[in-house]
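**Archive record**
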Amino acid sequence: GNKSPYGERSGGAFNLEIKEQTVSAAPKKLSIDAGVNGGIRVKGWERNEIYIKACVQAFGKDETEARARTAAVRIESEGGIVRAVASSAAVSDGNYSFGVSYDIRVPVNTDLSLKTNNGGINLAGVNGSIEFDLHNGGVILDRIAGSVRGQTVNGNLTFNLSGERWEGDSIDARTTNGSIFINVPENYSARLETGTRRGNFYVNLPVEKKRENNYEFNLDLGAGGAIIRATTTNGQVTIKSKTVAAKENKL
């Protein structure tokens, strides 16, 4: 049968439909729930409006049914809450036979609450209070500032830090079965607190290496400062300088 995000299928057809909308008066906080199947990408921009591009995919026994199912999915964004609402035509045997992935632009200073079951989260250029909760999917933070709290079960955490320090409160994130990758600019100041129960630490930084114990690696970068905390149970932790091309040191 055909492999699909919705389980093993024999025969049938997919349909994909792009649904777009703009929220002109941008709320201070945006909550996005991608439901059972779907990733979330959010990027900050200079406009005071939110642009939502939702990619709706549906499966049906034939093309007609698949098209009817994507058509039956409506994207709502009232009150700063983005979600897909489906009429019964998008549901088969009590199961959701569709998935929605989001590509969203928000004002830079937007607070975010993000949730998805099967799919990753990619955030860039946002400064706010950010929460995420995933089950199967990784998280990439690029040029982010503010306060970040979140968790995933099966997925990596990647932090691409920028500037000279963490601007804002802190990061506190954890994964159970994923690895952690922290990319640090030159002359960066922060307090790194990382941990893994069953993985290794790889550190490529021009600093004294110091293992706290078997499970933690904590480090003051530059002048120290805001805490960037990332822990995993079963994955490895890699901390790299963006500029130092030194050999990685396994601790």
In short: The mean pLDDT is 89. The longest strand covers residues 13-23.
